[in-house]
Write a structure and sequence with these properties.
Layout: E1 3-6, H1 12-21, E2 27-32, E3 44-47, E4 65-68, H2 76-90, E5 94-98, H3 110-123, E6 129-134, H4 145-151, E7 153-156, E8 162-163, H5 168-180, E9 188-192, E10 198-199, H6 200-211, E11 216-219, H7 222-232, H8 236-239, E12 266-268, E13 282-283, E14 293-295, H9 300-313
Parallel strand pairs: 1-2, 1-4, 2-3, 4-5, 5-6, 6-9, 7-11, 12-14
Antiparallel strand pairs: 8-10, 12-13
Helix pairs in contact: 1-5, 2-3, 6-9
């Protein structure tokens, strides 16, 4: 039985990972800033703040594998460095870091470049590591709940692009499996995507079917999206770094699964309904050990509809 600690335990990806780890026999610990806010997680808690490194002293003691994740912000590399240093001092045997699709030093967005800094620090830390780079979260589409309710429309700055968004539950399933058995994944970077690239027009159609009324997708400029999200109270550091359609890692046009490989190593099928599946179909590692991990999500449109159940619950 391994001892696994997850930072950002109340966040979407961490709670999905916790859910996937429950019942596996491993000891699961959540790192939170406020124990009261983590009591519903149903796991052991440790209190610490990535903003204040001294509060992390001893937090990682006795931990075999750690999940390192944090919200996007200008301070993200600082937070990631504090967590990594504390894990190293405590002798953590493996870290799994959540980065982002397209993270690179020459990426077009600030958030992606900041992720690249932290990815490089993890790789140079001396701790066995795995980096996950998930694509656009399906759950982010719920930002459109208000306009769907009021206008039957969803506004995004993705143009006519198609891209393979991913459900957070699938990210959690992959992270949980690696944390439970990290050795085969040491030194590897996996890009997590849905199995099919879809347009926002297809998403809107699925939403409309789910809630029983027409929904249309209206392409708008990034400036318009920024203005709308600002009115919703979304943090400026998030909305000011939104990608334009021409900056998406997967652009317009039909994108078959095999074409999503860049530095390809492994393809596996992980059903969001059966997270225990882990069947490598092909493995080709490059000399650097970097690779893409592609989720074949045959339930992609169903994922959209499942997300809309939450919208429907909000009386849309």
């Amino acid at each position: 039985m391994a001892t696994i600690l997850l930072t950002g335990a109340n966040g979407k990806s961490s709670t999905a990972t916790i859910a996937a780890l429950k019942g596996t026999g491993h000891k699961v610990i959540g790192l939170v800033r406020d124990a009261a806010k983590g009591k519903d997680l149903g796991i052991d808690l440790r209190v610490g703040d990535l903003e204040r490194p001294r509060t992390l002293e001893g937090v990682f003691n006795g931990v075999d594998a750690a999940w390192l994740v944090g919200p996007p912000s200008p301070q993200a590399p600082y937070h990631a460095s504090n967590a990594l240093w504390a894990a190293k001092q405590a002798g953590v045997k493996h870290v799994v870091r959540m980065s982002a699709v397209g993270a690179a030093h020459d990426a077009p967005t600030v958030n992606s470049r900041l992720h690249a800094l932290s990815d490089a620090e993890v790789a140079a830390s001396g701790i066995p590591f795995t980096i996950l780079k998930p694509h656009f979260f399906l759950q982010n589409l719920l930002f459109s709940a208000g306009t769907i309710a009021q206008e039957g429309a969803m506004y995004w700055a993705f143009g006519e692009a198609k891209f393979p968004a991913i459900d957070v539950d699938d990210i959690g399933a992959v992270a949980a499996r690696i944390l439970a058995d990290p050795r085969p994944h040491a030194g590897k970077t996996y890009t997590l995507t849905g199995g099919t690239a879809v347009s926002m027009h297809q998403v809107a159609a699925a939403f409309g079917e789910a809630i029983g009324k027409p929904v249309k997708y209206v392409p708008v400029s990034v400036a318009t999206i920024v203005e709308g999200l600002a009115r919703m109270g979304v943090a400026q550091n998030v909305i000011c770094d939104l990608p334009r359609a021409n900056q998406l890692p997967i652009e317009s046009g039909d994108v078959p699964l095999h074409s999503l490989e860049t530095k390809s190593a492994r393809r596996s099928e992980v059903s969001r309904r059966a997270h225990t599946v882990w069947r490598p179909r092909q493995q080709r590692c490059d000399s650097d050990g970097f690779c893409d991990y592609i989720l074949s999500a045959s339930y992609l449109i169903e994922c959209f509809r499942a997300a809309l159940k939450e919208v429907h619950r909000m009386r849309i």
